[in-house]
């Protein structure tokens, strides 16, 4: 397949460029690559906390759950007044009205 | 375009001899029995090819290392499912290319996120560009064109990029590339033709001044 748009003079340069690309493509990993793969495998094999559901093990969900628990627990009674200050419940006839 | 590679059956690459196939089959059988020595042999035999494929697609030693490690971990964990319908090297090239493209997508998403957060003033820093170690003198010569070529390869559509990289950097045959991509030789020819055409059109102005 040929393309008439290509200048004929650039074919050699293109071939040379591809040769350069091929030559510099021989990248190699750093030494002791196997040791690093082995370490990664060992890390992935480590037992996770299996009794927890998977979504709890995600930090964002765990933080959200924690915030929800904090918001819903304990603060309600503390913020409420100790005795109900109802204007109907606390007054009996015969007693002086509260000021 | 979404690009994924699966563990499906493909034809044996013809460039692999019967000896290589038998050796691979034996290696796979040992791996499936959990032999650590076989795993070490596998890594030693394929680490350069897997790493350099990932490096060609990512142009970052750290990312290529990460992808290469992921590939071998995945091989170790899923070798039981490998039925030998494709060559071992084909499977490894598939894993390497699909993992590398996944990494690239993730990196692009992270870059976009960093850009938007910097626009909104949430962060004072953005992800650094890959370091440019090229000497100015070298840039004046062919290295400049090579650098341009690599940049344009990185902008090709994923399938064209993989086909081009496997052909011109890993020196795989058309049949091997077809096996890796799970397509036909004619489709590979078409991918390569379009990739070369695009690249040469982009590089044409710089050829003019050489």
UniProtKB/TrEMBL annotation, chain A:
It comes from the Bacteria. This is Uncharacterized protein. It comes from Hymenobacter ginkgonis.
Automatic annotation (TrEMBL), chain B:
CDD domains: Sigma70_r4 (cd06171). Signal peptide: none annotated. One of its GO terms (biological process) is DNA-templated transcription initiation. Keywords: DNA-binding, Sigma factor, Transcription, Transcription regulation. Transmembrane segments: none annotated. It comes from the Bacteria. The keyword Cell inner membrane does not apply. PANTHER family: RNA POLYMERASE ECF-TYPE SIGMA FACTO, RNA POLYMERASE SIGMA FACTOR HI_1459-RELATED. NCBIfam families: sigma70-ECF. This is Sigma-70 family RNA polymerase sigma factor. It comes from Hymenobacter ginkgonis.
């Amino acid at each position: 397949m040929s393309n008439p748009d290509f200048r004929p003079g650039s074919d050699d340069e293109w071939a040379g460029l591809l040769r350069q690309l091929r030559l510099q493509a021989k990248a190699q990993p750093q030494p002791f690559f196997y040791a690093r793969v082995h370490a990664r495998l060992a890390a992935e094999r480590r037992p996770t906390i299996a009794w927890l559901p998977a979504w709890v093990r995600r930090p964002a969900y765990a933080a959200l759950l924690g915030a929800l628990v904090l918001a819903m627990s304990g603060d309600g009674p503390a913020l409420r007044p100790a005795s109900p200050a109802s204007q109907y419940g606390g007054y009996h006839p015969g007693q002086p009205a509260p000021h | 375009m979404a690009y994924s590679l699966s563990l499906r059956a493909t034809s044996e690459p013809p460039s692999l001899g019967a000896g290589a196939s038998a050796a691979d089959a034996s290696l796979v059988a040992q791996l499936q029995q959990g032999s650590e020595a076989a795993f070490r042999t596998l890594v030693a035999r394929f680490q350069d090819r897997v790493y350099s494929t990932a490096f060609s697609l990512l142009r970052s030693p750290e990312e290529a290392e990460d992808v290469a490690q992921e590939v071998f971990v995945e091989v170790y964990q899923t070798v039981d499912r490998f039925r030998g319908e494709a060559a071992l090297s084909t499977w490894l090239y598939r894993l390497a290319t699909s993992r590398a493209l996944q990494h690239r997508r993730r990196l692009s998403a992270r870059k976009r996120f960093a850009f938007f957060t910097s626009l909104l003033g949430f962060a004072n820093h953005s992800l650094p560009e890959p370091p440019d170690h090229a000497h100015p003198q070298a840039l004046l010569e062919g290295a400049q064109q090579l650098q341009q070529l690599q940049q344009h390869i990185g902008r090709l559509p994923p399938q064209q990029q993989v086909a081009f990289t496997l052909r011109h950097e890993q020196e795989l045959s058309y049949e091997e590339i077809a096996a890796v991509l799970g397509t036909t030789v004619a489709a590979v020819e078409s991918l390569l033709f379009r990739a070369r055409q695009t690249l040469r059109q982009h590089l044409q102005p710089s050829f003019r001044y050489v």
